[in-house]
Amino acid sequence: MFGRILSTARIEFAIAVRNRWVAISVAMMMMFSLVLSVAGSAPSGDLGIDRLSVTVASLTSLSVYLVPLIALLISFDAIAGEAERGTLPLHLTYPLGRGELLFGKLLAQLAVVALAVLLGYAVAAVVAVWGGGLQELAGLPALVRLIWTSVLLGAVFLSLGHLMSCMARRPSGAAGMAIGLWLVAIVLYDLGLLAAIVADDGGAFTTRIFPWLLVANPADAFRIFNLAASGAVGAASGLSGAANTIAQWKPLLSLVLWPVLAALLARAAFQRVQP
Amino acid sequence: MTILTLSGLTKRYGAQTALDGVDLTLAAGERVALLGHNGAGKSTLMKLVLGLIPVDAGKVSVAGHAPGSSVARALTAYLPENAAFHPALTGREQIRHYLRLRGDDPAKADGLLERVGLGDAGRRRIGTYSKGMRQRIGLAQALIGAPRLMILDEPTSGLDPVSRREFYSLLDELSAAGTAILLSSHALSEVEARTDRIAILSDGRLVAEGSLPELRIRAALPLTVHLRPRDGQADQLASAFPEASMANGVLSFSCPATDKLAVMGRISGLAPQIDDFEVLPPSLDDIYSHISRRAA
Ligand SMILES: Nc1ncnc2c1ncn2[C@@H]1O[C@H](COP(=O)(O)OP(=O)(O)O)[C@@H](O)[C@H]1O
Ligand SMILES: [Mg+2]
């Protein structure tokens, strides 16, 4: 079983390297990270916290858009692409379970996401130490937290990409659904919550339901967890600022549960795909 | 020994019946061609045998096991219709992966590629392959682990005549080693006489089954006779064969296969007037379209 999963992961990783997904993802993360850390390093001394923590705060706001996007881009083709090439029925006649196939692909794509965030955020650490010396490494725990939560967030959207891939059956349809999902989960969801808060004007929705709705979205959970945990709440804005009273364990739980839930959803959708 | 048994196999897609009560058996070492027009149900039948889609009625048994069960999967190899492997991988990487998936030694990849004539191309990306070469990759993966049953969906489409001949020689080796082979095609002329039995599907029903000579007899199509008269003998010969018509200096007529000897007798009696003659059996495509048309 491990041999089959590992072989699938290896071949998928090779494909990702040759399709330039690895290079594109890594370059994208490194570039944005570089821009943010250089731009954010100038006025930090006044805030009384290290530059790296400030950079982590701005990286958090960026990653919440970028990591799901990268994850969806590298995952939407997983099943639909095989169905179109005609290799899906072949794979399913091998002694390879559907779960094994999906898990192998997830592992390879998760490795791509992990590589991209690791190398990307490393740039931020290098820039911080370069500019302010070793004491800047006080912000290192915040950076480490950003890395592993980014990988969890990536895992969620990789599996959601697989879900789209199974539901659409065709790569073009899956790509459209993936972009739609990104818009809804990352952009429209927050706008909707903001509008609801404004309309509610401090009522029961804002105090009772809103915090739960916020952590229920893995992207918001990621943002809240990282901003609240880093010392740089001052850099937080918008919804996350409004939500900094939420207890830490809630967004953390959301971030840990979502990858499992999304993977189970993808697996269930894959079961219904008839080759 | 029976490797594959289909009994009353039926599959519906909504209101459409893709496969209607098909019975078929394959013994070890037997090569059976499944023939039918596009949409006749060939691929559907194969997917049912592989357990990829559920049956609506009837039963499939692969050496006594349910289709898609782990034993059946281990015994069966499959070549899907128009399989296109990932263009970014090399042929060798792809075959090594398939070997690992079957729990086999990836080092066998080179031997398999050699066997299908891709020894040199194995290190190139599949994206650079011709359609025939991609088909050979598909075939190479189907050879993994000496399967007892091979299901090949239109394996010779896209192959040139020479490659097709090599392909059938490979099938001869496999069948001699006891592998039962079910392959599909939409033309009888592609299958030629290289299979032991032919099963013809039309609109999801099995309308004929037997060896090529059996099907030939059953179709009872007439022979075509061509006579070329010697110089100046055309009119005389034409009056001796009033049923024939003249075109481009050749007399042509058809006769039932049972009259073959009588016609030969008449021809040899008129030998001085005849320059050359031909007696043509019905072509494979004639037989095939006759049988599938009669069924419709
Ligand atoms: N997934 C499907 N959904 C609906 N109809 C299908 C599906 N697959 C095949 N069919 C129909 O079943 C019939 C048989 O198809 P198929 O087995 O692919 O034919 P063949 O392989 O002989 O060309 C066709 O009429 C086809 O349209
Ligand atoms: Mg077909």
Give the uncertain stretches of chain A in residue-range form. Answer: none
> Helical segment tally of chain A?
12
In the CATH scheme, the class of the largest domain in chain B would be: Alpha Beta
The multimeric state of the shown protein is heterodimer
- In what range is the share of β-strand residues of chain A? under 5%
Tell me the CATH architecture of the largest domain in chain B.
3-Layer(aba) Sandwich
In the residues of chain B, how many domains can be counted?
A: 2
Q: Radius of gyration of chain B in whole Å, from Cα?
A: 24 Å
Q: Radius of gyration of chain A over alpha carbons?
A: 20 Å
**Structural class by SSE content of chain B:** alpha/beta
Within CATH, the superfamily of the largest domain in chain B carries the name P-loop containing nucleotide triphosphate hydrolases
Approximate strand percentage of chain B: 25-35%
The succession of helices and strands of chain B, N to C, reads EEEHEHEHHHEHEHEEHEHEEHEH
Number of helices of chain B: 11
Largest sheet of chain B: 6 strands, mixed
The greatest interface between two protein chains, and residues involved on each side, is: A-B, 23 and 30 residues
Helical proportion of chain B, percent range: 25-40%
Strand order of the largest sheet of chain B: 5-6-7-3-8-9
Question: H/E element string of chain A?
Answer: HHHHHHHHHHHH
- Per CATH, what is the topology of the largest domain in chain B? Rossmann fold
Structural account:
The complex is a heterodimer of chains A (275) and B (296). By secondary structure, chain A is mainly alpha-helical. Chain A is built from 12 helices and no strands. Chain A starts with a helix and ends with a helix. The longest helix of chain B is centred in the middle third of the chain and has 16 residues, at 161-176. Chain B has helices at residues 42-49, 70-75, 91-101, 109-115, 131-142, 161-176, 188-191, 212-219, 234-240, 260-269, 284-295; strands at 2-13, 16-27, 31-35, 57-62, 76-79, 149-152, 180-185, 197-202, 205-210, 223-229, 245-247, 250-255, 274-280. The model of chain B has no long low-confidence stretch (mean pLDDT 92). In chain B, the strands form 3 sheets. A 6-stranded mixed sheet of chain B has the order 5-6-7-3-8-9, sandwiched between helices. Chain B has a 4-stranded antiparallel sheet with strand order 11-12-10-13. A 3-stranded antiparallel sheet of chain B has the order 2-1-4, with helices on one face. In chain B, α3 packs across α4 (109-115). Chain B is α/β, with parallel strands linked by helices. The A-B interface holds A 3-4, 7-8, 10-11, 14-15, 18-19, 85-87, 89-96, 274-275 and B 47, 50-53, 70, 73-74, 76, 78-86, 88-89, 93-94, 97-98, 100-103, 138, 141. Bound molecules: adenosine-5'-diphosphate and magnesium ion (MG). Adenosine-5'-diphosphate binds next to α1 of chain B.
